[in-house]
Amino acid sequence: MATDVHRPVTSAAPAAVRVDGLIRAFDGRPVIDGLRLDVRPGEFVALLGRSGCGKSTLLRVLAGLDREIEGTVLVPRRKAVAFQAPRLMPWKRVWRNVVLGLDGKPERAVAERALDEVGLGHRARAWPKTLSGGEAQRASLARALVREPDLLLLDEPFGALDALTRVRAQRLVGELWQRRGCAVLLVTHDVEEAVLLADRVLVMDRGVIAHEQRVDLDRPRDITDPRFAALRAGLLERLGVEAPTPASASASTPASAAAATSASTAAASAAATVPARTAT
Amino acid sequence: MSISHAPPPPPSPDISGEATEEIPETGAVPPPELVPLVPASARRARVPRWLRRTTGPLLLLVLWHLLSVTGVLSDDVLASPGTIARVAGDLVEDGSLPSAMGVSVQRVAVGLLLGTLVGTGLALVSGLFRIGEDLVDASVQMLRTVPFVGLIPLFIIWFGIGETPKLALITLGVSFPLYLNVYAGIRGVDTQLIEAGESLGLSRWGLVRHVVLPGALPGALTGLRYSLGIAWLALVFAEQINADAGIGFLMVQARDFLRTDVIVVCLIVYAFLGLLADLAVRTLERLLLQWRPTFTGR
């Protein structure tokens, strides 16, 4: 079930992201240390990890915002980012924020189409200060989507939202992804969110992808499904959160995660290649 | 997995109805005494605020008038309010005050324009470019500590006694607060927004235009307000030296003839013009900064 990403790259396979041997160090301390990552076009990948494990750094590298790197990083020319904070320019009306940075002189209609898609068409002329948290985050999503990206990078975009808004925003992202068919890399610390949305969940630890979990549940996914709960529990264990039942005392520690990494390198050639995306 | 939060089911779904009956049963704690909270509107004084606020200055004016009428304040020390009003009317009628105001306002306007260009230009150079910062900032910060009024003698030697030293003094005074505030505004732009702009594919110039400059605008307008205050101050100093026109010239002349009434009129005109200038900047802020979350005008 759980395979490791340290498998041979078949160069023929199309990719939306190809990272190999990536190293990013802060003051000599590597945060990302020889990381390898492949994302297929149209694939939804969630990246989990404890805080400070380097998952946001990885996203910034893929977004091209951090170039102090070593190794190979291949990303599509058309990529877009939605950050944890909406990061709208407060001095531009919502629709101008959406078209900011587009080539040429984009029409307002272009922005309105993207805003309609996230259910914000009626707020096109509003100032960002008048938006609620959820609305601002959706505007930020529209700003990313209007670029028609081949790769959409989401950096904990639901982290600052309240629980109800978060559920709706997650659903929206799931729908948009199915409609657009772009590859998505979602950085999150919410295991449930990862299992809910992703085709593949990666766990980052010690600067590498330490664990990979395919999610083959049908969409839309049901969090009360026992298989969902099992996946969730397994990932939580990987993240070092002990399951509440005393039976599963074998909670993963950094040591066991490291063991998994070294074991996986040996078994790399034996690891199965990931089958094609199942979701529509 | 999850902790059970569910309490034992309450005896009745309607808790509020039940509560009044249950209180006596608890027994030990006596019920607190309830005090009615009066709506704020009921306690408000009848006199409107603006009237109360104008009462103070008006009382002062009346006191001044009484002191003048009773002879405690002689005309040589301070003319009475009535005299001042009359003199102001005369000065407007014979055209000396309007022409003086025209000259003074023009000096401030030109000085402010030049100072804005110099201050903002230098701030852009040192705010946007590392090398500009290295070359410009240290020198400006050093010059800033020199009291610009102290440069008057030097300016007279350099530029003579015509309009040039006056304009130069105002320009100099205006440049520094603008420089400091625009520079701080540029450097204070949220790096998260700059990063967002980068991720949207903005070029360097695009970043400056769409992110840095709008972000520095609030600081720039604060600088402009400081600058206006300093511009009037510089004007007063500049017009006291060898002026042959302007409000300062009127004042110097009045001093020579012990005309305190004219001096007070001139002071009032200075205050009035300063107020107008401040109003202009406030209007500018209202137009340009309506996007600000803290903005409460409108």
Automatic annotation (TrEMBL), chain A:
Keyword Lipid biosynthesis applies: no
Pfam family, one: ABC_tran
Highest taxon of source: Bacteria
UniProt domain ABC transporter: residue ranges: 17-231
Keywords: ATP-binding, Cell membrane, Membrane, Nucleotide-binding, Translocase, Transport
Family annotation (InterPro entries): AAA+_ATPase, ABC_transporter-like_ATP-bd, ABC_transporter-like_CS, ABC_transporter_ATP-bind, P-loop_NTPase
SMART domains found in the cross-reference section: AAA (SM00382)
Molecular function, one GO term: ATP hydrolysis activity
Region spans: Disordered: 244-264
Protein name as catalogued: Aliphatic sulfonates import ATP-binding protein SsuB
Species of provenance: Streptomyces longispororuber
Protein's gene: ssuB
From TrEMBL, chain B:
Matches recorded under Pfam families: BPD_transp_1
ABC transmembrane type-1 domain mapped to chain residues: 97-281
Pro residues bias spans: 1-13
Any Gene Ontology biological process: alkanesulfonate transmembrane transport
Membrane topology recorded in Swiss-Prot or TrEMBL: Multi-pass membrane protein
GO cellular component: plasma membrane
Localization (cell): Cell membrane
Alphabetical keyword list: Cell membrane, Membrane, Transmembrane, Transmembrane helix, Transport
Region (Disordered): 1-35
Transmembrane segments: 108-129, 141-161, 167-186, 230-250, 262-281
InterPro entries documented for this protein: MetI-like, MetI-like_sf
Family designation: Belongs to the binding-protein-dependent transport system permease family.
Protein name (database record): Sulfonate ABC transporter permease
